[in-house]
Amino acid sequence: MSIPKHDDIRIPILKLLKNNNEMKLKEFVEPLANHFNLTEDEINEIYPSGNGHIFYDRISWALSYLNMAGLLDKPKRGIYKISNSGLTLLETPEKVNEY
Asked: I need a labelling partner for 88 at 20 to 30 A (CA). Which of 40, 45, 59, 97 fits?
C-alpha cells in the first residue's frame, strides 16, 4: 500500500480521538500506520528533499485541516481533542472532506 494522503487520514483521526479523548501528534503514527497496513519503510519514508517524514507530515496536515474546520479542539499546545462538531459530523463520515 502507498502512504495515504492527508484527506484519507481525516476520518481515522476523528475515530481515534473519539475513542482516546486527547492525543499528541506523535501518538497518531502507530495506530494510523496499523489502520493503513503501512510497512516500516513507508512509515519512515522521507521526502526527497530530506525535509521530514512523509507519513508524519500528512498526519500533521490532516490535523491542521480538521482543526481549521472546527472539528478538533486544541486544549493545550500539541494536544488534539475531537470537538462536538467533529463528533456530530463523524455520524456521517462521507461528509467530512466536504465539510
From this structure: 59
Does the pLDDT value for residue 11 go beyond 70? Answer: yes
Contact 22/72 with Cβ under 8 angstroms? no
Least Cα distance to 16 among 54, 46, 59, 45 occurs for 59
CA 8, 11, 15, 18 dihedral sign is positive
* pLDDT value at 42 more than 90: yes
Phi/psi of residue 60, nearest 5 degrees: -60, -45
**Chain position carrying cell 502512504:** 3
Closest CA to 96 of 30, 34, 6: 6
Q: Beta strands of the chain (E only): which ranges?
A: 22-24, 72-73, 79-82
pLDDT of residue 1: 64
Which position has the grid cell 463528533?
87
